Amino acid sequence: MNYRVYPSSSSPLPVGLNPNEGSPGWLSKGDNAWQLTATYFVSLQSVPGLVILYGSMVKKKWAVNSAFMALYAFAAALLCWPVNSLSNAFLLGQMDDGHKLPKADYVFYEFAFAAITVILLAGSLLGRMNFYAWMLFVPLWLTFSYTVGAFTIWGNGLFQYKIIDYAGGYVIHLSSGVAGFTAAYWVGPRHSHDRQHFPPNNIIQILGGAGFLWLGWTGFNGGSPLSAGLITSLAVINTHICTATSLLVWLALDMAVYRKSSVIGAVQGMITGLVCITPGAGLVDPWAAALMGVMSGSIPWYTMMVLHRKIAFFQSVDDTLGVFHTHAVAGFLGGLLSGLFAKSGLLRLMYCSNIYGPDLSHCKGQFHRGLRQQMGYQLLGAVFITAWNAVVTSIICLVISRIVNLRMDEEALEVGDDAVHGEEAYALWGDGERMPKTRCFRIPLICSRLVSTPV
């Protein structure tokens, strides 16, 4: 099932094989090489990117469980991807919309997007969700929630060619933020001590995971045109401009308010910048990308650092890594700003269509039409994604709760990884071995013998 529908080529290319190159005549080797590279970048964001990031941002006793939730979701996403999409991966024919790529490229690229969406969602649930419940949740949520949202906005659904969502500000980030927050409500909070005291176990590795995420976004936004062209180049440079700006703005606010230059705060600002630029990366000018970075570094900072602590609604739900703020808020903000700043010429170049409303910064006297048409669709898309994910995620959680407990029992919450997986992230003695209980009594005896033994 192809979710992102692009216009058909006006002049179909010959399909026969080139005997000198061993490839079909319709295949663009440059586009194909870039698409495979972009898919590789997107995959690296999840494995090892988010595996490292999640395993490092949590308390030491949850490092293994958090990293493994991400790894499992990546593997499960490929196998539970809709059967008709997966079957196309084994067809070597050209994409139906005229792009000079094999169907297999597109199917795998979209799989990488589906996988990272549910992994981002997991950030709200770390440190208490029953792993068996998570194993059921991933395929159910991808099938009944993510698939519908992607098809509705990117495919032949209700909002085809109406909502500007270049690479998934709504489909990926708003959906993962809303679904994560909803699931966190149904799963329940972490252990009370964990919720009050939850220090990261390795800040250096957090920076490593964040690096995979940032650089991997080159393929996340750069691969969406499905070709190596002008839109691709613009999307890549805009992605990094917005992200760097957002990081610096978040860091400046932390230093101004808390007198500390927080590393984790800088990573959060990096993420909100990546998320905010996603729905308009290849459709706005670089100056607009910088302005979007200012907004994404300040507005989610305010909702996370100020509103979250004041509003009882946020306090009542334990969103472990603040995914609602970094993805739902930033994704919604990016969708609105994309409708505001996207250039009509770039929209036509990307979609070969004039049906989008004029962007407000280039409307040339049609301000009210642009405001009514395009911004109305942007708001409508956000409402649909929010409502759909909240309802369907709730249903899925209620169904799973009839099969297994959504939350670990109190004993497992006390112990952590060792109780859940029988493994721990860091060995304190030997090569992954545990210190026998009697060893603490034997050490003084050994030491006394060493002291009494003549040299």
From TrEMBL:
<dbReference type="GO" id="GO:0005886">
    <property type="term" value="C:plasma membrane"/>
</dbReference>
<keyword id="KW-0812">Transmembrane</keyword>
<keyword id="KW-0472">Membrane</keyword>
<feature type="transmembrane region" description="Helical">
    <location>
        <begin position="263"/>
        <end position="281"/>
    </location>
</feature>
<dbReference type="GO" id="GO:0008519">
    <property type="term" value="F:ammonium channel activity"/>
</dbReference>
<feature type="transmembrane region" description="Helical">
    <location>
        <begin position="167"/>
        <end position="188"/>
    </location>
</feature>
<feature type="transmembrane region" description="Helical">
    <location>
        <begin position="287"/>
        <end position="308"/>
    </location>
</feature>
<feature type="transmembrane region" description="Helical">
    <location>
        <begin position="106"/>
        <end position="126"/>
    </location>
</feature>
<comment type="similarity">
    <text>Belongs to the ammonia transporter channel (TC 1.A.11.2) family.</text>
</comment>
<protein>
    <submittedName>
        <fullName>Ammonium transporter 3 member 2</fullName>
    </submittedName>
</protein>
<keyword id="KW-0924">Ammonia transport</keyword>
<keyword id="KW-1133">Transmembrane helix</keyword>
<dbReference type="InterPro" id="IPR029020">
    <property type="entry name" value="Ammonium/urea_transptr"/>
</dbReference>
<dbReference type="InterPro" id="IPR018047">
    <property type="entry name" value="Ammonium_transpt_CS"/>
</dbReference>
<feature type="transmembrane region" description="Helical">
    <location>
        <begin position="133"/>
        <end position="155"/>
    </location>
</feature>
<feature type="transmembrane region" description="Helical">
    <location>
        <begin position="379"/>
        <end position="400"/>
    </location>
</feature>
<dbReference type="InterPro" id="IPR002229">
    <property type="entry name" value="RhesusRHD"/>
</dbReference>
<keyword id="KW-0813">Transport</keyword>
<feature type="transmembrane region" description="Helical">
    <location>
        <begin position="200"/>
        <end position="220"/>
    </location>
</feature>
<dbReference type="Pfam" id="PF00909">
    <property type="entry name" value="Ammonium_transp"/>
</dbReference>
<feature type="transmembrane region" description="Helical">
    <location>
        <begin position="33"/>
        <end position="55"/>
    </location>
</feature>
<feature type="transmembrane region" description="Helical">
    <location>
        <begin position="320"/>
        <end position="341"/>
    </location>
</feature>
<feature type="transmembrane region" description="Helical">
    <location>
        <begin position="226"/>
        <end position="251"/>
    </location>
</feature>
<feature type="domain" description="Ammonium transporter AmtB-like">
    <location>
        <begin position="33"/>
        <end position="426"/>
    </location>
</feature>
<dbReference type="InterPro" id="IPR001905">
    <property type="entry name" value="Ammonium_transpt"/>
</dbReference>
<feature type="transmembrane region" description="Helical">
    <location>
        <begin position="67"/>
        <end position="86"/>
    </location>
</feature>
<dbReference type="InterPro" id="IPR024041">
    <property type="entry name" value="NH4_transpt_AmtB-like_dom"/>
</dbReference>
